[in-house]
Every structure is written in structure tokens, then in C-alpha cells.
UniProtKB/TrEMBL annotation:
<dbReference type="InterPro" id="IPR021757">
    <property type="entry name" value="Ribosomal_mL46_N"/>
</dbReference>
<dbReference type="InterPro" id="IPR015797">
    <property type="entry name" value="NUDIX_hydrolase-like_dom_sf"/>
</dbReference>
<protein>
    <recommendedName>
        <fullName>Large ribosomal subunit protein mL46</fullName>
    </recommendedName>
</protein>
<dbReference type="GO" id="GO:0005762">
    <property type="term" value="C:mitochondrial large ribosomal subunit"/>
</dbReference>
<dbReference type="Pfam" id="PF11788">
    <property type="entry name" value="MRP-L46"/>
</dbReference>
<comment type="similarity">
    <text>Belongs to the mitochondrion-specific ribosomal protein mL46 family.</text>
</comment>
<dbReference type="GO" id="GO:0005743">
    <property type="term" value="C:mitochondrial inner membrane"/>
</dbReference>
<keyword id="KW-0687">Ribonucleoprotein</keyword>
<dbReference type="GO" id="GO:0003735">
    <property type="term" value="F:structural constituent of ribosome"/>
</dbReference>
<feature type="domain" description="Large ribosomal subunit protein mL46 N-terminal">
    <location>
        <begin position="43"/>
        <end position="141"/>
    </location>
</feature>
<keyword id="KW-0496">Mitochondrion</keyword>
<keyword id="KW-0689">Ribosomal protein</keyword>
<keyword id="KW-0809">Transit peptide</keyword>
<dbReference type="InterPro" id="IPR040008">
    <property type="entry name" value="Ribosomal_mL46"/>
</dbReference>
<dbReference type="InterPro" id="IPR033650">
    <property type="entry name" value="Ribosomal_mL46_NUDIX"/>
</dbReference>
Length: 286
């Protein structure tokens, strides 16, 4: 009896093992088919560049700053020692008094005949009055030319373009699709070169993104692109040099228009969610 049970066991175990393996293979195949059927499309990677021009001149002082400046200057004047020019004026006055009292032996004629401190002061004031200071308001400010870099000299300006995304144009920072084989920074350098060319010199800062934003494509765009949406990685770029006006020759097939905007103006041009994403890494100059 024991021998029969032992033989039966040896015959049954391999059969069960084979049956279990077949079931596991069928379950794995069905799971793979289900996963491939229910798998969502991937996200498209986009590299964008926040190109900024730093302020060229200092900002206007606020009323409080002006009041504090006057207070500090008055305090420094009261506690300061006499300058070399003030000491020179005192010495000139002593020499003139000695000359008037006919004590000519105590005064050298060459020193009296040279330029006095008062004459030097008068000449300096005349030179200052003849100097023409540059205006804080440029021609681009007067014409409200937002395509010129020569405007809002006391504010930071950001390059914003009207780029074709799908079937419509949207106001965004310059962006391009990431190409396999290049880094996100290289993608940003490529779009900067395509837009700015040789007229504006831009330096990309860092190798890692400074901001992130994502959005979903429309149904038609999903079919065309094959992606559920875009994940945008922002990099920072600073304008190092530009020509007289900083005008751009953009490709009208891709970009319909461009503007150099302050942070206040960005909030009126960019979409609400897009502006919230970029404002997290834009430093306010107000």
C-alpha cells in the first residue's frame, strides 16, 4: 500500500508542477496584454528658457527712501571733518587778508597768482551745468515699443513670444521639444540661437532646471503628437550684450510675435497657471 502511494505521489507532483507553470504563464500573458492595452501615452519633454535683461540704471527712489537719504546726508555733513577743498578756501582767504594788510613778505606771489579755490569751484560748477545728463525715458518708452530692449531701463525685461502650440498661438517663454541625445540645456541653447541669432548674446545659467510646468494636449493634438501632454522644464538665461534696439528677426511660421515685458506686464500676457509657475523663480525688482 505504501509503495502504491509513493508511486502515485511521484506521478502526481510533476503533473501539478506543469499545470501550475502553465497557469502562471497564462496569467502573465493576460496581465501583459491588459497593461499594454490600458497603458497611458507618455508626456512630451519641453525645454524653455526664461531670457531676462537686468536693469541698466537704478530705480527711482521712493518718498521714504528720499527722506532717509536726506537724513543720512545731513547727519554725515554735521559729523564730518573739513575736506581738502574747504581747507584750501580757508588758506586762500588768509593769503588775501595778508596781501591786503601789505604783508607781502609772508606770501609767495606765485601762490596768489595761481588758481584759487573759489575760481576752481566756479569752474567746476560751470562744467557741471554744461553737462547734459541722459534721460531715464528713452524713445522706445515714449513710443511704447515693447519689442525693443532699450526701454524700462530701471526694470528687468523678459522675452515672451507668441508661439504656435497646436492650432493656436500662446504667449510663453521660448520653448522647444527635447530631442533624444541632447541635454535639456542643449535644447535651450538651440532655441536661443534660433530666436536671438547673433544680435543678442545670451548665457544659459546652470545645467539643471529652475522651474517646472505641465499641461495636457487637446484630443486632436494627442493624435498628432502621440503624447498626453507636455512637461516643461525652465532654464534661466541672461542677456549679456545687444545692439542699439535689441530687435529680433523671428520665424513667422513658428512665432507670430515677441515682446520684452516687465514682471507686471507678464501677468497680463501669460496664462494664469503658466504665470504662477514662472513667478516662482522670477525675482521681483520692485
Amino acid at each position: 500500500m505504501l509503495q502504491i502511494c509513493s508511486k502515485f505521489r511521484h506521478c502526481l507532483i510533476p503533473h501539478l508542477q506543469k499545470s501550475c507553470l502553465n497557469n502562471l504563464k497564462q496569467i502573465g500573458t493576460a496581465s501583459a496584454v491588459a497593461n499594454s492595452t490600458n497603458a497611458e501615452p507618455e508626456w512630451q519633454l519641453i525645454a524653455a528658457t526664461c531670457i531676462s535683461r537686468s536693469p541698466i540704471i537704478t530705480a527711482e527712489l521712493t518718498p521714504m527712501e528720499k527722506e532717509y537719504k536726506e537724513l543720512v546726508e545731513q547727519r554725515e555733513f554735521e559729523q564730518s571733518l573739513q575736506s581738502d577743498h574747504e581747507l584750501r578756501l580757508i588758506e586762500d582767504k588768509i593769503k588775501i587778508d595778508l596781501m591786503s594788510m601789505q604783508d607781502r613778505d609772508l606770501v609767495e606771489i606765485e601762490e596768489v597768482s595761481s588758481q584759487t579755490g573759489t575760481e576752481f569751484e566756479d569752474a567746476s560748477v560751470a562744467e557741471l551745468e554744461s553737462h547734459q545728463f541722459g534721460s531715464r525715458v528713452t524713445d522706445a518708452d515714449k513710443l511704447n515699443d515693447m519689442t525693443s530692449l532699450n526701454r524700462a531701463l530701471d526694470r528687468s525685461l523678459y522675452l515672451t513670444i507668441s508661439q504656435k502650440l497646436g492650432s493656436q498661438h500662446q504667449w510663453v517663454f521660448p520653448q522647444t521639444k527635447w530631442i533624444p541625445g541632447e541635454t535639456l540645456r542643449q535644447s535651450c541653447e538651440r532655441i536661443v540661437k534660433d530666436i536671438c541669432g547673433s544680435k543678442i548674446k545670451v548665457k544659459i545659467l546652470g545645467n539643471s532646471p529652475c522651474g517646472f510646468y505641465k499641461y495636457k494636449y487637446s484630443k486632436e493634438m494627442r493624435k498628432d503628437e502621440g503624447f498626453i501632454g507636455a512637461k516643461v522644464f525652465f532654464f534661466t538665461g541672461h542677456v549679456l550684450a545687444f545692439d542699439t534696439q535689441g530687435k529680433l528677426d523671428i520665424n513667422k511660421d513658428i512665432f507670430s510675435d515677441y515682446l520684452w515685458l516687465t514682471q507686471d506686464e507678464l501677468s497680463t500676457k501669460l496664462g494664469k497657471s503658466y504665470y504662477q509657475a514662472v513667478s516662482s523663480f522670477i525675482i521681483s525688482d520692485q
